[in-house]
């Protein structure tokens, strides 16, 4: 691969939309104006985690003046789901989690809609629930989806009808007996991760309207406008061409706004609203437990290591607390399976990753897609084994981490990767091995490190497309289907288009998504947009550029190979002629003979990976499981209060191999934001569930890190080992930024005060309790 | 949020009458940082909210001629926390008020609201208990005053009867040389609801065996904010490191916390010990330095 | 249940009728269509709805619209003067303090207010001044840097 010297790619431009965001001009769904015609939607929700619906009576709600629409599961019995269609828009005969919608109301005011929901009577027959995934996977557990075998399902998802297991991904590699025999030390332990929530500052918001021709428009705060169009159209049995999804600015996603969660309910109400728009916005409480959460995990790790630190075998079992519907979670389970060893070369592997239905909130995609959860277990496990063997955790990681060409857990040769560099640089930046002074009495400091890997988790063939159209003045419009939810899609698109076309970035405008006008994009997930959409934009730029160059070459009578576009002008290296793009990109050019050539320039490009192969269902082995892995490491320094158990993160270092940083400063902002989100989940976050009832669905009791809790210092290190199929060598960074944070902090806490915290979050009280137990074990208080 | 009416009376009599009229469905309304949330969550369905902020003296913070601090019940947390006289003479109270939530919330949240909600975790309460503040109440039977220690009856419960409202808190000046500190443990570093809070006030007292006298109050570890009398007594006897440790244990013994989603009773109890010891050590160090 | 109120928002006077149970946030967003101010939680925890009321920041989700009668409100739309961004708006752009942008209006108001009352805040004062404004994207570091830089710009402006 040859990489051309770039002038725009690799530069840290400011975000193209930030002026709109600092003046209040940026519009999000709830900011769009629909006039007095707007109806306000509310959902009636289940108060029970698992029950049969015996009767729903909506008559009182319908009779309330000002109520225009009341819908229930009887109106829309179709099922939806990205990989496994297991989920109704409204519960039909059974509710499976607290907060499941059973009816929807649209009324003239939000107050009326709320009151009408209170007037809907639902009679339930409560069923025994499943509140633990390991129990849920057992034969004794009550069945949550008796019809699991009848649901539509992607071919790479292996469900077990007659159980609560909606996907079971297996790895059988090498010879386990030999692996254990070679080990000098074998250690087995169980780790837990609770369900947490993404907490985008903007909750899910939608408006839906059906016009006189039956065309539906959905304004949606979404990472997946095209996937929403696809899933909702299919579940309603309508043509894709009859559904239009418009996504303006999005106030954070982190995976919560991937796929479909509450959007179908809004469309369902709009279909009965006689042409009036219906708005449905989640309250913060609804956001916490009724849209998507991150799946919980029970991880059982057994690892063998030689006395010099080489990993000989791993046997891992992952029980995913996937919640009531696992339509999205089945693929997280798969990703956890094909990444189950962490970023290490392990010759002998036995892994089972099980997606288990529970009567908990619905697990969906969240930043990291299973990786923060499994790395919580693996990366702590390695440190504990290293200490037992008297080895340095950094050296153990450097010894075992995947090197170019080594086989991954699924048998795919690892592509060139800067993982070792990342580990080394993170360790160096944190001052590995150098003690630092605590700030006062009863405080202890410690340093920890964790490595990671993550591939874009997606079907083998998710596509991207882009178009570039020129304006008369030589500026251009880039249309994409990728969503900017804060991570910087619009800016990256502008940089790639400008670089590809040879024009200044100021001359590029990038539009937000409207599925009627934007070209296709599978979804803005999996940290795949810079890579996949980026390739499509470069292809579109190339096509547009060729249209321009061929036109000019014809008029000038030159060889197109002698022409290029530089800073908005077509220049000839042969004749040193030059002409600005203005006018010629729309009106074409007049030839010496008086005739014309050219016309409005339109470049189109597309990209789809074509080389991912299926994996064997029994062994998980195959030539190429994924497109690529982004790798990296984080190191943390913490200070622990030995009396209160409080953990203060002093410094967090992130080092990732991003292939090529299109915008280095924005790469660093991803690293920082991800690390603090990772820190917040590590120390604070958990949806507290008691028999399926969420006990803390408010910011008062679901605390997230504030500006005071953010680390005192952060350092972000970019490593660039190019990706062969990435635009200018780039690969993704969005999700990776929070994958190793929690175990790095846990390892630092352990280094500081010698306690092991198996379950996230590392609350002050857990540390205090562990310290007390440790003192008790040592015979003093 | 379900609709309610809003009235803004000009006199205490009018306010009291309004609270009586609506048969319990009228709620006094000051900073509305708590009331509105409870209405939004559907826990309360008032017919009317009675804005008490325009009542005479309700928003004033001032030192009275007798040297006592008078805080109008609708004075905001920031008014108190940033008041020069409070910072100078009642700094423990300033610390307590400044620890509540965020700056913008403290611009609305009131001291009266904080006390009348009667949360065991109310952050203005421990300091006011240490200073032996007095609550002034107006109602159908006229004015009455209650020592703050007797004001709270339990979580969400106060001595206020129907038609009564808290009008002001008065705080006597502390003893000469008094030093106080408010220590608070939350889940996040700043701005959380207290998981445990401890207010410590000490002053030189030649009559006491230790040469010092103490008031110590605890938040979030009992049905109401409480004083830790035994700890105070022990410190009056002995303020040596051993005495401080014993007093801290006595404070922990005074706590009667519950397990909830924020922390367990066992953790809270031990944190009372730790925070009391740290608070007393800090006060002692500052008393020695001055 | 309806009240006539007069108040100024971003320097413009409004005489409108509000419902007694509507918050200032609702009045600003729905009646005045000033949608820059955001609703992130309705409970005064996230700070996305922060506005200035008589120069002091408040959570507009916990102020009733009727209480704004006679008061002066500044929202994010009113921070720029004559088309010139306020220092904190400039530094948030320049230092990358905004990502999804949903918390940004509240952060700008809170930071602006902090710099008004404390023109030269320490790092800890900046962090504590922002504790009522949650951000899930940035990790806060760039925002803290933007406030620090805005303080420097403001002081330079004052000196000139």
Describe this structure in words.
The complex is a heterotrimer of chains A (781), B (290) and C (160). With 781 residues, chain A is of the alpha+beta class. In chain A, 25% of the residues lie in helices and 25% in strands. Chain A folds into three domains: 154 residues, Aldehyde oxidase/xanthine dehydrogenase, molybdopterin binding domain (Aldehyde Oxidoreductase, domain 4, 2-Layer Sandwich); 182 residues, Alpha-Beta Complex (Aldehyde Oxidoreductase, domain 3); 331 residues, 2-Layer Sandwich (Aldehyde Oxidoreductase, domain 4). In chain B, strands 4-5-10-6-7 form a five-stranded antiparallel beta sheet. A four-stranded antiparallel beta sheet of chain B has the order 11-12-13-14. The termini of chain B are far apart. In chain B, a hairpin with a 2-residue loop joins strand 6 and strand 7. Chain B has 290 residues and is of the alpha+beta class. Chain B folds into two domains: 174 residues, Uridine Diphospho-n-acetylenolpyruvylglucosamine Reductase, domain 3 (2-Layer Sandwich), CATH 3.30.465.10; 111 residues, CO dehydrogenase flavoprotein, C-terminal domain (Enolase-like, domain 1), CATH 3.30.390.50. In chain C, strands 2-1-5-3-4 form a five-stranded mixed beta sheet, covered by helices on one side. In chain C, strand 3 and strand 4 form a beta hairpin. In chain C, helix 3 packs across helix 5. Chain C starts with a strand and ends with a helix. Classes of the chains: A alpha+beta (781), B alpha+beta (290), C alpha+beta (160). Chains A and C meet through helix 1 and helix 16 of A and helix 2, helix 3, helix 4 and helix 5 of C.
Instruction: Provide a count of the helices of chain A.
Output: 18
Structural class of chain A: alpha+beta
Number of strands of chain A: 35
**Most extensive chain-chain interface:** A-C, 54 and 53 residues
Distance between the termini of chain C: 52 Å
Strand order of the largest sheet of chain C: 2-1-5-3-4
Query: In the CATH hierarchy, what is the architecture of the largest domain in chain C at level 2?
Result: Roll
User: What portion of residues of chain C is helical?
Assistant: 25-40%
Strand content of chain C: 15-25%
Task: Summarize the main sheet of chain A.
Answer: 8 strands, mixed
Rg of chain A over CA atoms, rounded to whole Å, is 27 Å
Tell the overall outline of chain A. Answer: globular
Uncertain residue ranges of chain C: none
Assembly state here?
heterotrimer
Pattern of helices and strands of chain C:
EEHEEEHHHH
The number of domains of chain C is: 2
| CATH fold-level topology of the largest domain in chain A | Aldehyde Oxidoreductase, domain 4
């Amino acid at each position: 691969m040859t990489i051309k010297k770039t002038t725009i790619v690799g530069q840290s431009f400011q975000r193209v939309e930030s002026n709109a965001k600092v003046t209040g001009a940026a519009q999000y769904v709830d900011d769009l104006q629909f006039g007095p015609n707007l109806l306000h939607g509310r959902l009636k929700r289940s108060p029970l985690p698992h029950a049969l619906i015996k009767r729903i009576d909506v008559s009182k709600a319908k009779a309330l003046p000002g109520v225009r629409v009341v819908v229930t599961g009887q109106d829309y019995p179709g099922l939806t789901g990205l990989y496994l269609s297991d989920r109704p828009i409204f519960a039909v005969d059974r509710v499976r989690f607290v907060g499941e919608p059973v009816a929807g109301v649209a009324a003239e005011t939000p107050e009326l809609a709320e009151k009408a929901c209170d007037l809907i009577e639902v009679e339930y027959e409560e069923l025994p629930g499943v509140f633990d995934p390991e129990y849920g996977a057992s034969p004794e557990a009550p069945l949550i989806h008796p019809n699991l075998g009848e649901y539509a399902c992607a071919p790479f998802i292996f469900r077990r009808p007659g159980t609560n297991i909606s996907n079971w991904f297996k790895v059988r590699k090498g010879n386990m007996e030999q692996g254990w025999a070679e080990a000098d030390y074998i250690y087995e332990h169980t780790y837990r991760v609770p369900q947490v929530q993404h907490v985008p500052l903007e909750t899910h918001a939608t408006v839906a309207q059906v016009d006189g021709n039956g065309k539906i428009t959905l304004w949606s705060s979404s990472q997946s406008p095209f996937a929403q169009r696809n899933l909702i159209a299919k579940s309603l049995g309508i043509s894709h061409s009859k559904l239009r999804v418009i996504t303006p600015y999005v106030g954070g996603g982190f995976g919560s706004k991937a796929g479909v969660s509450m959007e179908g309910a809004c469309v369902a109400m709009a279909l009965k609203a006689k042409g009036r728009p219906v708005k449905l916005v989640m309250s913060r409480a609804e956001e916490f437990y009724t849209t998507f959460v991150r799946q919980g995990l029970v991880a059982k790790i057994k690892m063998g290591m030689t006395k010099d630190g080489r990993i000989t075998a791993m046997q891992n079992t992952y029980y995913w607390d996937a919640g009531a519907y696992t339509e999205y979670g089945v693929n997280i389970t798969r990703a956890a399976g094909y990444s189950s060893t962490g970023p290490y070369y392990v010759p002998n592997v036995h892994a089972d990753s099980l997606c288990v239905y529970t009567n908990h909130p619905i697990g969906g995609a969240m930043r990291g897609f299973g990786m923060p959860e499994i790395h919580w277990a693996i990366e702590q496990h390695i440190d504990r084994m290293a200490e037992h063997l008297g080895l340095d955790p950094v050296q153990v990681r450097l010894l075992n981490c995947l090197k170019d060409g080594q086989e991954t857990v699924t048998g795919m040769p690892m592509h060139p990767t800067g993982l070792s560099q990342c580990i080394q640089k993170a360790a160096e930046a944190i001052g590995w091995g150098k003690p630092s002074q605590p700030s006062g009495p009863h405080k202890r400091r410690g340093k920890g490190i964790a490595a990671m890997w993550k591939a874009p988790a997606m079907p083998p063939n998710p596509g991207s497309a882009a178009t570039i159209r020129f304006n008369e003045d030589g500026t251009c419009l880039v249309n994409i289907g990728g969503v900017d939810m804060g991570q910087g899609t619009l800016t990256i698109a502008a940089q790639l288009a400008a670089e590809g076309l040879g024009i200044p970035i100021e001359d590029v405008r990038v539009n937000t998504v409207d599925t009627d006008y934007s070209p296709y994009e599978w979804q803005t997930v999996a940290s795949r947009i810079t890579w996949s959409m980026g390739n499509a934009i470069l292809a579109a730029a190339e096509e547009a550029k060729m249209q321009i160059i061929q036109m000019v070459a014809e008029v000038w009578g030159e060889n197109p190979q002698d022409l290029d576009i530089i800073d908005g002008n077509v220049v000839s290296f042969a004749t040193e002629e030059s002409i600005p793009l203005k006018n010629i990109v729309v009106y074409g050019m007049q030839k010496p003979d008086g005739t014309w050539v050219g016309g409005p320039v339109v470049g189109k490009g597309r990209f789809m990976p074509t080389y991912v192969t299926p994996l064997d269902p029994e062994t998980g082995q195959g030539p190429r499981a994924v497109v690529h892995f982004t790798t990296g490491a984080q190191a943390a320094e913490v200070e622990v209060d030995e009396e209160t158990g409080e953990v203060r993160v002093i410094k967090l270092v992130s080092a990732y191999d991003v292939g090529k940083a299109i915008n280095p400063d924005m790469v660093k902002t991803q690293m920082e934001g991800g690390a603090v989100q990772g820190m917040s989940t590590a120390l604070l976050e958990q949806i507290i569930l008691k028999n399926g009832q969420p006990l803390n669905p408010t910011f008062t009791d679901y605390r997230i890190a504030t500006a005071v809790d953010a680390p005192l210092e952060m350092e972000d290190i970019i490593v660039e080992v190019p990706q062969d199929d990435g635009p200018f060598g780039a690969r993704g960074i969005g999700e990776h930024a929070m994958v190793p944070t929690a175990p790095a902090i846990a390892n630092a806490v352990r280094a500081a005060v010698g306690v092991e915290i198996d379950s996230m979050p590392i609350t002050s009280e857990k540390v205090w309790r562990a310290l007390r137990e440790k003192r008790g074990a040592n015979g003093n208080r | 949020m379900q609709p309610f009416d809003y009235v803004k009376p000009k006199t205490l009599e009018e306010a009291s009458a309004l609270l009586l009229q609506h048969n319990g469905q009228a709620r006094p309304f000051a900073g509305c940082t708590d009331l509105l949330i409870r209405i939004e969550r559907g826990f309360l369905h008032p017919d009317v909210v009675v804005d008490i902020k325009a009542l005479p003296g309700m928003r004033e913070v001032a030192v009275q001629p007798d040297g006592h601090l008078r805080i109008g019940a609708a004075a905001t947390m920031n008014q108190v926390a940033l008041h020069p006289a409070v910072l100078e003479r009642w700094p423990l109270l300033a610390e307590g008020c400044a620890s509540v939530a965020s700056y913008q919330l403290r611009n609305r949240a009131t001291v009266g609201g904080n006390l009348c909600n009667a949360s065991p975790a109310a952050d203005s309460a421990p300091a006011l208990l240490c200073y032996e503040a007095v609550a002034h109440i107006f109602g159908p039977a006229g004015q009455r005053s209650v020592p703050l220690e007797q004001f709270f009856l339990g979580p969400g419960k106060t001595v206020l009867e129907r038609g009564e409202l808290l009008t002001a808190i008065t705080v006597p000046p502390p003893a000469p040389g008094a030093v106080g500190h408010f220590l608070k443990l939350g889940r996040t570093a700043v701005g959380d609801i207290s998981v445990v809070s401890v207010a410590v006030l000490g002053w030189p007292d030649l009559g006491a065996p230790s040469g010092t006298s103490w008031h110590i109050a605890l938040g979030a570890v009992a049905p109401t904010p409480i004083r830790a009398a035994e700890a105070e007594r022990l410190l009056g006897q002995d303020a040596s490191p051993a005495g401080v440790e014993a007093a801290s244990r006595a404070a922990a013994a005074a706590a009667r916390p519950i397990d909830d989603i924020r922390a367990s009773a066992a953790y809270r109890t031990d944190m009372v010990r730790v925070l009391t010891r740290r608070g007393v050590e800090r006060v002692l160090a500052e008393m020695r330095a001055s | 249940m309806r009240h006539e109120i007069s108040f100024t928002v971003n320097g413009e006077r409004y005489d409108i009728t509000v419902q007694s149970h509507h918050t200032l946030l609702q009045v600003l967003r729905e009646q005045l269509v000033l949608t820059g101010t955001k609703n992130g939680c309705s409970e005064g925890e996230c700070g996305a709805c922060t506005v200035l009321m008589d120069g002091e920041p408040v959570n507009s989700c916990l102020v009733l619209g009727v209480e704004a009668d006679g008061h002066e409100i500044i929202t994010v739309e009113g921070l720029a003067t004559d088309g010139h961004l306020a220092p904190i708006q400039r530094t948030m752009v320049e230092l990358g303090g905004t990502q999804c942008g949903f918390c940004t209006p509240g952060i700008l108001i809170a930071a602006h207010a902090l710099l008004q009352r404390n023109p030269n805040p320490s790092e800890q004062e900046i962090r504590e001044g922002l504790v009522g404004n949650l951000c899930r994207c940035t990790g806060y570091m760039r925002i803290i840097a933007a406030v620090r830089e805005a303080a420097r710009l403001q002081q330079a402006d004052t000196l000139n």
